[in-house]
C-alpha cells in the first residue's frame, strides 16, 4: 500500500531517551525544559529571534488573530485547508474570499483591493504547499489600507524567501507541526512575529492570559504544548536536512517522469528556497483526475484531493463563486510523498497516471470516429468517454 503520506519517525531509542529524562524530572508540561530547548533550537535552525511553540497550527491562527485584535472582515484565500477559514469564523470575523492565481495557487494580490471595505482589518493568506505568496504586493496593499497580515505558513517548514525563513514575513506567521508535516511534533505548531508587544501578548495568551503567578494581563486560552511533543520535535530536528533533501530528490524524480503528462504543475515564486513538502498535480478535467485516482486505488496507491472542496463552499459560509479556485480544486490531487517513498513506488504511480491518460486519449479518438460514423457528429460520445 502506498499512502499519500507517512509521518517521519526518528529512531525509537532517541525518543525513549528523552522520555526517560521526562520521567526523571516528572515535569510533563507547562513550559518545561524540552519545550524551551525545542524553541531555542528552532530559532537557531530558522535563524529567527523569536517563536512560540503551541498546541497546533489551528490554535496558532486563532492566537495570531486575537493578539492582533482582528475584527470585522478578513480577506483570505478559498484554496487552503479548512482551518484557515474556520479560525476566522471562530474569532467571530467574516472571511472575504479573493480568488487565487492559477499558476502559483496563492491568493491573487491583483484582486485584493477590490475586496477591501471599511470593515476590513486583515489579510490572512496561505503560502500554499510551501510556495510563498506575492509578499511584496500583499505588503504594499496592507500598508496602503492599514491592514494586518497573517500568513498561514502551515506547509512551509524549510522554505526560505529572499534568503530568510518564510516565517519572518507578515505581522504574524503561523505554522503547523502536525504529524503529516515535513517537520513535526506529532501535534503542534508555532507563531512567529518580529513585534515584541505582539509576541508578549501571544506568550501570555498561550498560557490562559497569566502574566505572573496570580495575575492576568489579558484573555487567554490553553495553547501550550507538552514535553512529549517537544521531545519528538527535538528528535526530528536532527534529521531535518535529510528530510528536506529527500523531499527534493523525490519531487524532482516525479517531475522528470511526469514531464510527458497532460497536466499542470504549481509554479514556484522567484527567490524561493523551496521545501518540496507536497507534490500537487492538476489534471485537465475532474473526470480524468477521478479516473487516475480510481486506477491508482486499484493497485492500492492512495492520493489525496487537497484542497477540496474550495473553502467558499463550506456550509457556514455564504456561497460565492471563485472561478479559478473552484476549477482547480476539482482537478488537483497530491501524489504520495514521504521520506521512505522509493523511486520504484514513484515509477508505479507515474506509469499508472501516464497509462490512464493515454488510454483515455485513445478511447476518445476511437469513440469520436465511431460517433462520426453513426451520428454524423462526435460530440456526445467524446463527452461520455470510456
Ligand atoms: C494550510 C493549513 N493551515 C492550518 C492547518 C492546521 O494545522 P493543525 O492541523 O496543526 O491544526 C493545516 C493543517 O494541515 C494546514 O494545512
TrEMBL record:
It comes from the Bacteria. One of its GO terms (molecular function) is pyridoxal phosphate binding. Keywords: Pyridoxal phosphate. The active site is at 181 (proton acceptor). Pfam families: DegT_DnrJ_EryC1 (PF01041). SUPFAM superfamilies: PLP-dependent transferases. GO terms for biological process: polysaccharide biosynthetic process. The keyword Transcription regulation does not apply. InterPro entries: DegT/StrS_aminotransferase, PyrdxlP-dep_Trfase, PyrdxlP-dep_Trfase_major. The modification N6-(pyridoxal phosphate)lysine is found at residue 181. Belongs to the DegT/DnrJ/EryC1 family. This is dTDP-4-amino-4,6-dideoxygalactose transaminase.
Amino acid at each position: 500500500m502506498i499512502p499519500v503520506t507517512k509521518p517521519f519517525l526518528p529512531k525509537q531509542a532517541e525518543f525513549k531517551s528523552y522520555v526517560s529524562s521526562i520521567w526523571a524530572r516528572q515535569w510533563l508540561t507547562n513550559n518545561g525544559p524540552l519545550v524551551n530547548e525545542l524553541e531555542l533550537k528552532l530559532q537557531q535552525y530558522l535563524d529567527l529571534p523569536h517563536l512560540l511553540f503551541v498546541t497546533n497550527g489551528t490554535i496558532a491562527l486563532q492566537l495570531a488573530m486575537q493578539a492582533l485584535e482582528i475584527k470585522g472582515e478578513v480577506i483570505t484565500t478559498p484554496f487552503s485547508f479548512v482551518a484557515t477559514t474556520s479560525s476566522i469564523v471562530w474569532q467571530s470575523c467574516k472571511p472575504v474570499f479573493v480568488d487565487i492565481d492559477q499558476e502559483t495557487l496563492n491568493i491573487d494580490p491583483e484582486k485584493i483591493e477590490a475586496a477591501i471595505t471599511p470593515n476590513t482589518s486583515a489579510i490572512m493568506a496561505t503560502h500554499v504547499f510551501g510556495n510563498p505568496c506575492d509578499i511584496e504586493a500583499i505588503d504594499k496593499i496592507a500598508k496602503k489600507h492599514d491592514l494586518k497580515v497573517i500568513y498561514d505558513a502551515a506547509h512551509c517548514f524549510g522554505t526560505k524567501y529572499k534568503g530568510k525563513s518564510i516565517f519572518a514575513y507578515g505581522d504574524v506567521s503561523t505554522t503547523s507541526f502536525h504529524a503529516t508535516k515535513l517537520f513535526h511534533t506529532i501535534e503542534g505548531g508555532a507563531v512567529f512575529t518580529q513585534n515584541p508587544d505582539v509576541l508578549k501578548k501571544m506568550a501570555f495568551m498561550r498560557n490562559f492570559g497569566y502574566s505572573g503567578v496570580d495575575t492576568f494581563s489579558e484573555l487567554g486560552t490553553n495553547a501550550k504544548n507538552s514535553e512529549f511533543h517537544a521531545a519528538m520535535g527535538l528528535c526530528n530536528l536532527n534529521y531535518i536536512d535529510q528530510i528536506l533533501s529527500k523531499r527534493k530528490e523525490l519531487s524532482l524524480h516525479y517531475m522528470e517522469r511526469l514531464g510527458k503528462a497532460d497536466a499542470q504543475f504549481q509554479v514556484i515564486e522567484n527567490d524561493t528556497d523551496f521545501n518540496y513538502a507536497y507534490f500537487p498535480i492538476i489534471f485537465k478535467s475532474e473526470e480524468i483526475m477521478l479516473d487516475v485516482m480510481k486506477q491508482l486505488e486499484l493497485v492500492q496507491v492512495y492520493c489525496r484531493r487537497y484542497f477540496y472542496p474550495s473553502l467558499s463552499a463550506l456550509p457556514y459560509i455564504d456561497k460565492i463563486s471563485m472561478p479559478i479556485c473552484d476549477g482547480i480544486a476539482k482537478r488537483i490531487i497530491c501524489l504520495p510523498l514521504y521520506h521512505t517513498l522509493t523511486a520504484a513506488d514513484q515509477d508505479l504511480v507515474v506509469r499508472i497516471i501516464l497509462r490512464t491518460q493515454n488510454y483515455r486519449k485513445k478511447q476518445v479518438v476511437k469513440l469520436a470516429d465511431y460517433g462520426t460514423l453513426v451520428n454524423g457528429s462526435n460530440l456526445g460520445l467524446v463527452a461520455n468517454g470510456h
